[in-house]
Design goal:
By secondary structure, this protein is an all-alpha fold. The chain is built from 31 helices and no strands.
Length: 650
Amino acid sequence: MSKPKKKPTGNPAKRTSPSPAVKAAPKPASQTGFWKRNWPGAVILLILPFALYGASLKYGYVLDDKIVLSENNFVKKGLAGIGDIFSTESFTGYLGEQKNLVAGSRYRPLSIATFAVEHHFWGLNPRNSHFLNILFYALTGLLLFRVLALFLRQDKDRKWHMALPMLAAVLFILHPIHTEVVANIKGRDEILALLLSLGAFYFSYRYAVYRKIADLALAGPVFLLALLAKENALTFLAVIPAALYLFAKTPWRRILTAMAPLFAAFIVYLVIRVSVIGFLLDSGQEITGIMNNPFYGLSPGQRSAMITYTLGKYLQLLFFPHPLTHDYYPYQVPLMNWGDWRALLSLFLNLGLIYIAVRVFRKKPVLSWSIFFYFATLSIVSNIVISVGAPMNERFVYFSSAGFCLALAWLAVEYLPEKLKLGAPRNAWFSLGLLGLIAAGYAVKTVTRVPDWENEMTLNRAAIKVSVNSARANSYMAYSLYRAGVDETDQTRKKALFDEATPYVDRALEIYPEYTDALTCKGGLVAGYYQMDGNIDNLLDGFYQLLAARPVDFITQYLEYVNNRAPARKMTDFYHRAAYQLLAVEKRNFPLAIQYLNYGLKIDPNNILLLEDLTETYAMAGQQNDAVQTGQRGLAIQPESARIRKVLEN
């Protein structure tokens, strides 16, 4: 007869079993009354964005607001335009057709659809648009707080305002690097994408921990909306499983189940995107302008060094957000190779962070996941995976800054007090003091940065103080001054504005001689001076220099205007020099040369020099019939023309 098994004795707490690295996640808010217990924090997170960004309610439209809102033809249709918004590439409502101006084109219909809804009910009203941006930003802070609270359990001995989720959310709301996203109405795509990604995170995490089918059902549609706001959301396909693995200790099978609706949503998004724009990432059309392809023509070493440098610049701006600018276009991010210490330092810092994340992911999961969150969400806009059309932008780090803010809060509340060993009361005061100083600095910088976004002039003046090496910033500053000069009625003040604009546009062309926007602005200034002083020689010399760099439409349009208003001899001499000698012979730009030579012949139909020029240009262009007809016109005027006879004989 076997002896009965003895029951285990002793204190169960003394059994040897590995303790989890992270405390179990709290129950969901519906069961624990999360918002009821944390209403003071919720109020702060709701009010703080309006305190920081309230001044923007008085501001107008700037930068790309015209593309997505004020001059978007689909938005102007109101609700009737939503179908067009979702069925076309995102620039089509502004440009009239899909032009694939940037790598991968753009398909971000959700925020544009919200603008159409606004327009339907309120018309073009920037105040309402700014209000909604701030509101969505506040909701993002609230949801970040709630999502982090799912797996970062609050210590019972710690006040609510010292809890990691609350501190991270407050730092996120305060961070000045978000000014571009919130104060620029166009930034709503970033705001909605993160807000909805956090929503998908919330539902996926709740399902994985509590297995509620309703949460699983909601996760997919919410994530699809996030992707339709901006494709950055797809990085949450990595962020969410990492959180489930590190904090909830969820089995991989359940993680896969929780993520299945999100992957399904991603596939649906890809199908929609390809069906709308016609391709996934590559249109097959090479983009050669450095304003939309900043690494064009660079060696792999230069490209990788510059990208690595920007990764270091992002870290600097997150730790110390000064100076800020909306413009990092060529060559504000300087050309460099791997011999530049700045690229090497950035490489060392970023690899160091990755090493730390791997090294401590079991002992310090909050820090590890924060770093992983930072790099995962930054990857898609880093230019490492795909070219995003700009070397860097402060709005690109909007997603990633959430990971940074969590890491910063953790360092101040958990890590530094433990290392300094100040004792319980002093630890709290140390953390509060440190975070208070950081928060105050962030708040002051944000409040003083917001007024830069009042209008185009204030924004460009702020940018040019920082982005002195950006062709775009210099060109935009020049254009703002040029437009102010065009609208100015006082001739002295008009000239002063043109004079102020000239060094900026010249600097832009020094940086990028073929920059179309700068060439157009320069042409406008040359024409503006002509309208004031009537000096046709300066006008034509200025236009010749611009044509030598790169022809722009403005010159053609203005030549049509001035063609019958200026002395005929000066104009025909210009067309011989610019159209024939420069455009036809030197540049081989036959269509434009032919157009300009015909302008000259409108002034003087019997000008034998222009007829000879046009005959030869037609021949060089392979338009033999036109060459013969024009040559016969010339021979009727001057039968002994050797130039024409040579063309006709051949």
